[in-house]
Amino acid sequence: MLFYEPKEEERIGVKRVRMAAEGGANVIVTACPFCMVNIEDAIKVAGFEGKMTAIDLAELAERQMFRDTVITGMPVVGKDAKEAKDA
């Protein structure tokens, strides 16, 4: 047995995905690789594949750090970051 599967009406991951969906979320963020696997599976089991996704916390941070680069085409680091913040 690779993972412990408790005998419950509904798996915890599926419960969490349904809770997130009820709250209007379309992304679930985690920093735990084990949780990532469980949440990705729960998204499929709960029928939210294509409507919801799971991402790693580091991926979210990277997306936010480079968001301005994608929008403006210019990196926002160092002196440029201060100027962008002041603008």
Describe what you observe in this structure:
It is a single chain. By secondary structure, the protein is mainly alpha-helical. It has one domain. 55% of the residues lie in helices and 9% in strands. A two-stranded parallel ribbon has the order 1-2. The mean pLDDT is 80.
Short description:
This protein is mainly alpha-helical.
Summary keywords:
single chain; 87 residues; mainly alpha; two-stranded parallel ribbon; globular
Strand ordering within the main sheet: 1-2
Q: How would you state the average pLDDT, rounded? A: 80
Total number of distinct structural domains? 1
How many DSSP-defined strands?
A: 2
List low-confidence stretches: none
Please tell me what the overall shape is: globular
Bin the strand percentage.
Answer: 5-15%
